[in-house]
Amino acid sequence: MFDVNVWRKEFPILSREVHGKPLVYLDNAATSQKPNAVIASERHYYEALNANVHRGVHTLSQEATDAFEGARDTVRRFLNAAQREEIIFTRGATEAVNLVAHSWGRSNLKAGDEILVSEMEHHANIVPWQMLCEVTGAVLKVIPIDDRGALVEGAAQAMMNSKTRLVGITQVSNALGTVNPVADMIRAAHAVGAVVLVDGAQAVPHLAVDVQALDCDFYVFSGHKLYAPTGIGVLYGKRELLEKMPPYQGGGDMIAHVTFKKTTYNQLPYKFEAGTPHIAGVVGLGAAIEFVESVGLDNIAAHEDRLLAYATQQAEAFEGLRIIGTAPGKASILSFTLKGVHPHDIGTILDSAGVAIRTGHHCAMPVMDHFSVMATARASFAFYNTLEEVDALFVALRRVEELFLK
Predict the structure, then answer these.
(1) What is the mean pLDDT of residues 193-197?
(2) Can you tell me the distance from the alpha carbon of 107 to that of 304, in angstroms, rounded to the nearest whole number?
(3) Tally of domains in the chain
(4) In terms of C-beta density within 10 A (0-12 exposed, 13-18 middle, 19 or more buried), how is residue 328 classed?
(5) pLDDT tens readout for residues 127-157
(6) CB of 205 closer than 8 Å to CB of 32
(7) Catalytic residue among 30, 51, 207, 363
(8) Taking the CA of residue 62 as centre, how many other CA atoms within 13 Å lie in the half-sphere pointing to its CB?
(9) What number of CA atoms fall less than 13 Å from residue 328's CA on the CB side?
């Protein structure tokens, strides 16, 4: 049996108060809180292992390297990648997308080629491709969404053709909660010879991901949404693609041999990991994944589905509240507006009640434009949230209603 209260005890921050009220943390799509196991792993690294990796013969360096590379093996297993060399550590999903755009994109795209993204993408899966188009002459095409916040049925496949070279698609929308049919899109893209990058930043905390089953070419995610430290992320890439891609950055550890006449580059995955990495963050990411696996992704998904269904039911009964994003099969996000109240005012009043949500455009301005809103309020759930916390959200929203609408 899944007992949420048992797992809540593993997150020290959940016991604090805000403005004299118990913290109700519902901003998990922005960043998740960290369990004791992750905090302890970082502390242990700094207290017992602190040394650079890959470069020392002394004991601390060897032990730090073992911990660092052990985390890579953990990520490989978590994503079911075929080889550990396909796991590249980055600063986050954003850097991972930029790595692919810079390295694969500049090597493979030319004027007239097409890149396909969806209307619901995070800015991190839009702006790097726009920058790439400016350099190469490629063209960015946009798959439309409907008024539920789902991809327009059949639109993506209809837009794919011999000019389509890359499809960048989010698995779960950070602004809407929509879960996209990425496996179908990958098959369609491969049929026209395109490669596919999947933004999994909002997916990995909620869904089991198997990159071999998906057959995606690239998959990116950030650790800090997966209960891991900030400043660490992952790029998965098929080995045959990574082998052909030039380095993204130059520096230490990504080289095999350097002279002033010529530099030869290191083997995978180190070719893409220039400089001293965020070693403690990588170790913390490995600990976070092991922690999530101990909870069980099936348990996480089932509990979060209950939370979202309960919150949606209350939202639908709340007069003047408009849910933004009503696609079937959503994951863990309730975005909304309240007639007559700016989302920032909603967020401020909720904060006074100890309820933390996110307000704004959520780095998804095209989504806001589609729904003709400047911003939304977004409550996003993690497995440590409770039904009582959902109740606290709506009690605080009634207070907003009293202050602004009555």
Answers:
(1) 98
(2) 41
(3) 2
(4) exposed
(5) 999 999 999 999 999 999 999 999 999 999 9
(6) yes
(7) 363
(8) 3
(9) 1
Is 363 catalytic? The answer is: yes
Rounded to the nearest integer, the mean pLDDT of the chain is 97
Same domain, 111 and 220: yes
User: Strands 114-118, 24-25: parallel, antiparallel or unpaired by DSSP?
Assistant: unpaired
Task: Kindly state the tokens that stand for 121.
Answer: 């993408």
207 burial level (CB within 10 Å; 0-12, 13-18, 19+):
middle
CB 178 within 8 A of CB 153: no
Tell me which residue range forms the domain holding 331. 4-30+296-405
* Residue tagged 């209960």 (tokens): 227
**C-alpha to C-alpha distance for 378 and 357, rounded to whole angstroms:** 6
CB atoms under 10 Å from CB of 372, counted, come to: 6
| 232 and 245 part of one domain | yes
Burial pattern 295-314, b for ≥16 Cβ within 10 A else e, equals bebebbbebbbebbebbbee
pLDDT tens-digit readout, 21-32 = 999 999 999 999
**pLDDT tens digits, 366-375:** 999 999 999 9
The one-letter code for the residue type at 80 is: N
Question: Which structure tokens are listed for 141?
Answer: 């095409």
Both structure tokens of 32: 């998740």
Positive or negative, the Cα torsion across 30, 32, 33, 37? negative
Q: Cis (ω within 30 of 0) for the bond into 269?
A: yes
Other C-beta atoms closer than 10 Å to the C-beta of 6 total 10
Same domain for 311 and 279, yes or no, is: no
CB atoms closer than 10 angstroms to residue 254: 20
Please report how many Cα atoms fall inside a 13 Å half-sphere around the Cα of residue 32, on the Cβ side.
28
* φ and ψ of 236, to 5 deg: -95, 135
